[in-house]
């Protein structure tokens, strides 16, 4: 019982802290890359209080529910958007034995849980009583349906190579030469993951300057903040899953007792890459999003899966 409580508390603390760290890092990285002065002033030294200022801003804003909204669905949408990432984080191992729930089908579980997040966007768009929000929700759904296939296929390639769906098991059999063998799959997985999170340059369905923030138009205050927090939590989950599947998880120089350090460093590196992509690339149009998914990522993911199968038959 004590071990169960410790694991639950550990997952909860990680879920509450890691997305906030990523959010703070995004402020600072973007400020440096785009020469923004504002995020460097809050709290004096290097703008350490910028995230605190954002939190106070959201708390002070009134949470408004439109008169035409389906109030119950409208209120539950932010919770449905954020909870799947906490559930997914529970199955991602930090080091040998350090995991919320070490499942035999951990990869299947995480991919299934992450796909539930789209319901939050659909609920938000439908329940707002706003036709523009509804259109934004449908565009989010269309994008996620397109990128779910290459996302799952590239992850399946690693499962075939490892011969297991256990995330800890995948790390256990990971080999450095997989960095070359599974490289196309890793690229597809990362790009599809960005699209799943609606991160730039794949944020056309929620682009604030073009479609008034898509399904989240009517949200204010803490409810709106929960959608933003869900995005940062998704970055942590995507970075953690990329680390476990393609970068060897806790594998690194030194004993396994310090493996959690390597996991944290790799997750941080992937998270920084996510932020860099946001700054470096322009937003794609809706037709370009679909073309990239079906004509680019899906064929590469299928080819990677086929090559992995051939490699397993020949070398294992």
Automatic annotation (TrEMBL):
It is a multi-pass membrane protein. Its EC number is 7.1.1.-. It is found in: Cell membrane; Membrane. The keyword Membrane applies. Keywords: Cell membrane, Membrane, NAD, Quinone, Translocase, Transmembrane, Transmembrane helix, Ubiquinone. InterPro entries: NADH_UbQ_OxRdtase_su1/FPO. The chain crosses the membrane at residues 76-95, 107-128, 149-171, 177-195, 224-247, 259-281, 293-315. The keyword Signal does not apply. It comes from the Bacteria. NDH-1 is composed of 14 different subunits. Subunits NuoA, H, J, K, L, M, N constitute the membrane sector of the complex. Belongs to the complex I subunit 1 family. This is NADH-quinone oxidoreductase subunit H.
């Amino acid at each position: 019982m004590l071990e169960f409580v410790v694991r639950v508390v550990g997952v909860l603390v990680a879920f509450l802290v890691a997305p906030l760290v990523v959010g703070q890092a995004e402020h600072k990285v973007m400020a440096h890359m785009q020469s923004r002065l504002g995020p460097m002033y809050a709290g004096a030294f290097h703008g350490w209080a910028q995230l605190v200022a954002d939190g106070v801003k959201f708390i002070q804003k009134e949470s408004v529910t439109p008169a035409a909204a389906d109030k119950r669905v409208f209120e539950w949408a932010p919770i449905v958007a954020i909870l799947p990432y906490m559930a997914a984080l529970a199955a991602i191992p930090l080091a040998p034995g350090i995991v919320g729930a070490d499942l035999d089908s951990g990869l299947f579980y995480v991919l299934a849980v992450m796909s539930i997040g789209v319901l939050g966007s659909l609920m938000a768009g439908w329940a707002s009583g706003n036709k523009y929000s509804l259109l934004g929700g449908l565009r989010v759904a269309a994008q996620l349906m397109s990128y779910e296939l290459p996302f799952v296929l590239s992850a399946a390639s690693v499962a075939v190579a490892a011969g297991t769906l256990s995330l800890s098991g995948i790390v256990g059999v990971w080999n450095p030469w997989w960095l070359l063998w599974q490289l196309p799959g890793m690229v597809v997985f990362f790009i599809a993951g960005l699209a799943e999170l609606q991160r730039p340059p794949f944020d056309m369905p929620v682009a604030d300057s073009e479609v008034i923030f898509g399904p989240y138009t009517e949200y204010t205050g803490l409810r709106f903040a929960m959608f933003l927090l869900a995005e940062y939590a998704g970055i942590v989950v995507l970075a953690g899953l990329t680390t476990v599947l393609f970068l060897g998880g806790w594998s690194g120089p030194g004993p396994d007792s310090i493996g959690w350090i390597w996991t944290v460093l790799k997750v941080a590196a992937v998270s920084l890459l996510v932020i860099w992509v946001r700054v470096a690339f322009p937003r794609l149009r809706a037709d370009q999003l679909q073309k990239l998914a079906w004509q680019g990522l899906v064929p590469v993911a299928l080819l990677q899966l086929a090559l992995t199968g051939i490699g397993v038959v020949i070398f294992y």
